[in-house]
Amino acid sequence: MKGGAVGRNIGGIKNDRTNNNFCVVKIKLGLLNIRSIGSKYNIIYDLISDGLDIFVVTESWHGSSENPSIALSTPPGYRFVDCVRDNDPLHGGLIIFFRLCLKCKTIALPKVTTFEVLAVRFTVNSQEFILLAIYRPGSAQLSGLFFKELISILENITVLSSRIILTGDFNVHVEKTNDPYAANLNEIFDNFQLINRVKAPTHLRGGTLDLIVTSEDFPQQFKVTSSISK
């Protein structure tokens, strides 16, 4: 398995005014670059079963939605949405597992060439937020086109909701303050009023590459922990 991260965030997304009380619903979200789901379905199953509400898998290499490893990864009470790499379905790939109690609708996005992206609108207790999952191949040279395409995606998403979670493997060393690519990415986050919640290393060789980023308007009861996978 590629070194990656499991990040868990807890965000209140419900304002329930029944009986004039404010109620917070907590969402636990996990993220992991699995680098082939094929023989690692038991790892994913166990991580989801540990109490996650949403689990994002990058670099799944699953080929199609019919891959039996996806079904084996899915605990009772969960379902998934996915996308495969257009020109190479046995590499790359994104899967989002989530509880059945979360209503989910996929969102059509402009076509991009420098990263893979999957967007869904989740609804829980009449409150909505958009989850944007991303995988940018580390083998591909970073270029200005990546940042232009990311801006295009964010422009499309931010008009739909002020509550956004952007998560995935960016393969950008955001911990390097003198890195121009990291500076570009952080500037984009600032321009769209997004906050990266992951500060710890997420890769075996060091570096913060796997991010959980939220809009500033997302309720602020938030907690992120990271663990590096072997």
Automatic annotation (TrEMBL):
<dbReference type="GO" id="GO:0003824">
    <property type="term" value="F:catalytic activity"/>
</dbReference>
<dbReference type="InterPro" id="IPR005135">
    <property type="entry name" value="Endo/exonuclease/phosphatase"/>
</dbReference>
<dbReference type="InterPro" id="IPR036691">
    <property type="entry name" value="Endo/exonu/phosph_ase_sf"/>
</dbReference>
<protein>
    <recommendedName>
        <fullName>Endonuclease/exonuclease/phosphatase domain-containing protein</fullName>
    </recommendedName>
</protein>
<feature type="domain" description="Endonuclease/exonuclease/phosphatase">
    <location>
        <begin position="44"/>
        <end position="219"/>
    </location>
</feature>
<dbReference type="Pfam" id="PF03372">
    <property type="entry name" value="Exo_endo_phos"/>
</dbReference>
